[in-house]
Amino acid sequence: MANTSARILYKPFGLAGSVGAGLIAGVLFKQVWKHVSDADDTPEANDRRFGWGQVLLAATVQGAIFAAVKAAVDRGGAVAFERWTGEWPGEE
């Protein structure tokens, strides 16, 4: 199987992994935020109850968690795909 074929076959797995990573990252962020702050709610940019610092800190933490979880899921999916098919689904 050519590398292009592997990438095409991997697309549905990668998409499902991205959705799952987003869900996992959201749950993880809420748990982290509860431990970091006194608030049960996570700051939204248009919520007056939170100041600039809280909103920007929350966005930074949320982005870092999302990026790390997505990278872990994407890499794990690529490794599993290679084990199953013998082909690496991305750039070599």
Give a written overview of the molecule.
The two termini are 15 Å apart. The protein has helices at residues 3-36, 52-85. The chain has one domain. Helix content is 74%, strand content 0%. α1 (3-36) runs antiparallel to α2. It is elongated. The protein contains 2 helices and no strands. By secondary structure, the protein is mostly helical. The model has no long low-confidence stretch (mean pLDDT 88). This is DUF4235 domain-containing protein. The chain crosses the membrane at residues 12-32, 52-73. It comes from Kineosporia mesophila. InterPro entries: DUF4235. Pfam families: DUF4235.
Domain tally: 1
Q: Note the total helix count.
A: 2
Distance between the termini: 15 Å
User: What is the N-to-C order of secondary-structure elements (H for helix, E for strand)?
Assistant: HH
Poorly predicted runs are none
Shape: elongated
Q: Which bin fits the share of residues in helices?
A: over 70%
Structural class: mainly alpha
Strand content range: under 5%
Rg of Cα set: 18 Å
Profile the largest sheet.
none
Global mean pLDDT: 88
Number of strands: 0
InterPro entries: DUF4235
Protein name: DUF4235 domain-containing protein
Organism: Kineosporia mesophila
Transmembrane segments: 12-32, 52-73
Give the gist of this structure.
This protein is mainly α and 92 residues long.
List the helices and strands and how they pair.
Elements: H1 3-36, H2 52-85
Helix pairs in contact: 1-2
Pfam families: DUF4235
InterPro entries: DUF4235 (IPR025329)
Keywords: Membrane, Transmembrane, Transmembrane helix
